[in-house]
Specification:
- The complex is a heterodimer of chains A (about 45) and B (about 200).
- By secondary structure, chain A is an alpha+beta fold.
- Chain A has 2 helices and 2 strands, in the order E-H-H-E.
- Chain A has one domain.
- Chain B is built from 2 helices and 8 strands; from the N terminus they run E-E-E-E-E-H-H-E-E-E.
- The chains are: A alpha+beta (about 45), B mainly beta (about 200).
- Chains A and B meet through strand 1, helix 1 and helix 2 of A and strand 1, strand 2 and helix 2 of B.
């Protein structure tokens, strides 16, 4: 059985923007919420 | 328990989602996993490359309320593999732990990785701390990572074929804190695959 993989494109600028934003937020819940909001904009399946 | 492979070749993206299908229901009372995040503890057999990464919740996509696609036979888990070119190493491994907290890992090529699955109730800031997580026994994922000569993104200074194996096992098993890597690993690895050390 083969392994399922998918090509993914990453938006590096958004990723770095998120790193920067997270560095200013201490609350874990807020961090998780922000990561959720950004996730699908940072990582996009291109298959 | 299953074995998976990823081989970079041709024009593949340097980023790949790699899917694991594991029968977690048979390994643990899944009520224990309610509201818990899953961690991958990744260890290279030859390079002693060790990282902890937070599995992306494949159903909810939300680390505050993690749920994973599953049925009675298997759970769908996913890892994001970054090909180890210079840019990816710098951005997604050595300068921040965010990629690890999003389920990503920059994988040295040419190694075979044992991946253990843990569950944790740590908050998102400290999610990578393996010492506060609990291992799910019996789920032993094996991932073989390799690169084909046809791959477009091979960098010329990547030592793909050089190989020196030490006589002694220099693996240092140590708890990983919130950064997702151990400062005491990678100290003596020259096995011919790339290796590097984060500094955040």
């Amino acid at each position: 059985m083969g392994t399922k993989t998918e090509n993914v494109e990453v938006n590096k600028e958004l990723y770095l923007e998120l790193v920067e934003k997270l560095s200013t937020i201490e609350d874990a819940e807020q961090q998780a919420q922000l990561v959720k909001e950004y996730y699908n904009n940072i990582y996009t399946v291109i298959d | 328990m299953a074995t998976y492979n990823i081989t970079y070749k041709g024009g593949m993206s340097t980023l790949q989602y790699v899917y694991f299908y594991e029968n977690i229901t048979s390994a643990i009372d899944t009520s224990l996993l309610s509201g818990k995040n899953l961690l991958f503890y990744v260890r290279g057999r030859e390079t002693n490359f060790i990282r902890t990464i937070a599995a992306h919740p494949t159903n909810s996509g939300d680390y505050s309320s993690p749920t994973f696609l599953n049925n009675n036979r298997y759970w769908t888990l996913r890892l994001t593999a970054f090909y180890p070119n210079t840019s990816n190493i710098s951005t997604y491994d050595t300068t921040s732990n965010l990629a690890k907290r999003q389920g990503g890992i920059v994988l040295p090529m040419g190694d075979t990785y044992d991946i253990e699955v843990y569950y944790t109730s740590s908050n998102y800031t400290n999610i990578l701390n393996i010492s506060t997580a609990t291992k799910i026994s019996g789920i032993n994922i094996v991932l073989k990572a390799s690169v084909d000569a046809t791959y477009d993104s091979i960098e010329t200074d990547n030592p793909m074929s050089y190989y020196t194996e030490y006589t002694n096992n220099d693996l240092i098993a140590e708890s990983i804190g919130t950064k997702g890597y151990s400062s005491n690993n990678n100290t003596d690895s020259q096995y011919g695959t790339q290796n590097w050390q984060p500094n955040y």
